[in-house]
From TrEMBL:
The UniProt record lists the keyword S-adenosyl-L-methionine: no
Listed PROSITE patterns: TAT (PS51318)
Organism: Streptomyces corchorusii (Streptomyces chibaensis)
Keyword field: Hydrolase, Lipid degradation, Lipid metabolism, Signal
Biological processes annotated in GO: lipid catabolic process
Lineage of producing organism: Bacteria, Bacillati, Actinomycetota, Actinomycetes, Kitasatosporales
Gene3D superfamilies per UniProt: alpha/beta hydrolase (3.40.50.1820)
UniProt superkingdom: Bacteria
Molecular function via GO: 1-alkyl-2-acetylglycerophosphocholine esterase activity
InterPro entries attached to this UniProt entry: AB_hydrolase_fold, TAT_signal
Signal peptide feature range: 1-27
Name of the protein in question: Hydrolase
Length: 412
């Protein structure tokens, strides 16, 4: 994951190569000797179950593929489970998704073709029975960064589910690197090609950024509309949509706060290092979103990489000044943009196995120790949603500096 939101810009040169690679990689057999990865186990008391659902929005043609008269999405649902022993753990990425991710992702100087992305298993068990003893559970939606699959937030999403949340993760079709639908059909991202058409005209680039965010927010609102009726019988009655939150990383964080601004059903939202303006660099002023320009009246949390705060991110400053509800902001010392994804767990493994220089690790995930970064993210995210969706004590984590998490630096 690049340290700035230049993923689309840098992908222009890779459009043709990535398309060829995606086609060949999806057909290629798994190669022996490629790096296999593990993800950290969730920290909560519940085992985790998972299902995936295909949803179709017949009310709108696909904004990216205008010949298609409907919008088609894949979502994943993580939930507290029981008796998981007989149910297999789910892969982080299906084969078609893994091939697309290997062909075009935002990791800097990481040889993706030497990693077996399809081999990574999560800690969520496919189709395991839900634990109804403590339900219905509050619901948290997750949106990934631009060009990223929903699976790149597995570490945080599985952890929230293990703590007693139902977590709904969403792939934004033609935005995510690759989305695999039932039957094996794969739809790949169009964002690099769209950026190539817009570049270098700044007005066209701004329009593309606006469209990308608008499509994402519409996706979220459609999923919220559909969720009650789309659930399989075994999950019905276990989601408490009256206690609804959302979070995301990068463009997903932007999506979370903008969706909350647009949709009163979302009670609280967290933005993990997502700029809130239609700009290519965090520090660029202007082109504010409506959420940044007008603020929020419900609780929100900003968590940034080192150096991102109210003084350096104009859209955050505007949001802060115009908001009247509870809000907090913090950075993690030594964190980078991709710290708030599964990159924090997998980049050190890849670097160790392939002998990559420390510079590559730092460029992707910063200098913060991975265990400390993951522990702090989990704690602050769970404390935030516990406070606003469950009315639980946040253990003083938002009162100021914490001896447990000295990496966290608050800003105001």
């Amino acid at each position: 994951m690049q340290t700035r939101r230049a993923a689309l810009r840098s992908a222009v040169a890779a459009v043709t190569l990535s398309a060829i690679s995606a086609r060949t990689a999806s057909a290629a057999p798994r190669e022996a000797g490629r790096v296999r990865l593990t993800l950290p186990a969730p920290s909560g008391p519940y085992p985790v179950g998972t299902i995936s659902l295909r949803l179709v929005d017949a009310s709108r043609p696909d904004p990216w593929m205008t010949s298609q008269p409907y919008r088609e999405l894949m979502i994943g649902i993580r939930y507290p489970a029981r008796a998981v022993g007989a149910y297999p753990t789910a892969p982080q990425m299906l084969p078609g998704e893994a091939a697309g991710f290997a062909a075009l992702n935002n990791f800097s100087d990481v040889p993706s073709d030497q990693v077996d992305w399809a081999a990574t298993r999560t800690h969520a068990h496919e189709g395991a029975p839900v634990d109804r003893n403590a339900g219905p559970y509050p619901v948290v939606c997750y949106s990934p960064g631009a060009g990223d699959p929903r699976s790149l937030g597995t570490t945080l999403c599985d952890d929230l589910a293990s703590r007693g949340y139902v977590v709904v993760t969403l792939d934004h079709t033609y935005d995510a690197t690759a989305v695999q639908f039932p039957g094996g059909r794969v739809e790949s991202t169009v964002l690099p090609a769209e950026f190539a058409k817009a570049y270098p005209d700044p007005d066209r680039i701004t329009a593309l950024l606006r469209k990308t965010l608008a499509v994402r927010v519409a996706d979220i609102r459609f999923v919220l509309d559909e969720l009650p009726g789309a659930l399989p019988r075994e999950l019905r009655g276990t989601l408490d949509l009256a206690r609804l939150g959302m979070f995301g990383q990068s463009a997903g964080g932007f999506t979370a706060l903008q969706a909350m601004y647009d949709d009163p059903r979302i009670a609280a939202a967290a933005d993990l290092d997502g700029v809130l303006a239609y700009v290519q660099e965090d520090s660029t002023p202007g082109n504010l979103s409506t959420v940044a320009a007008n603020g929020l009246d419900r609780p929100f949390l900003l968590i940034g990489k080192e150096g991102n705060d109210l003084g350096t991110v104009p859209s955050w400053d505007s949001l802060w000044r115009h908001s009247h509800g509870w809000h907090r902001g913090l950075t993690l010392h030594g964190a980078e943009h991709a710290t708030y994804t599964d990159a924090e767990a997998v980049i050190p493994q890849i670097a160790h196995r392939l002998g990559l220089p420390r510079k590559t690790v730092v460029e992707n995930i910063g200098t913060i120790a991975p265990r400390r970064a993951i522990s702090a993210q989990r704690a602050y995210l769970a404390a935030f949603f516990d406070r606003w969706l469950r009315d639980r004590d946040d253990q003083g984590l938002f009162d100021g500096l914490s001896d447990r998490y000295p990496e966290a630096r608050f800003f105001s």
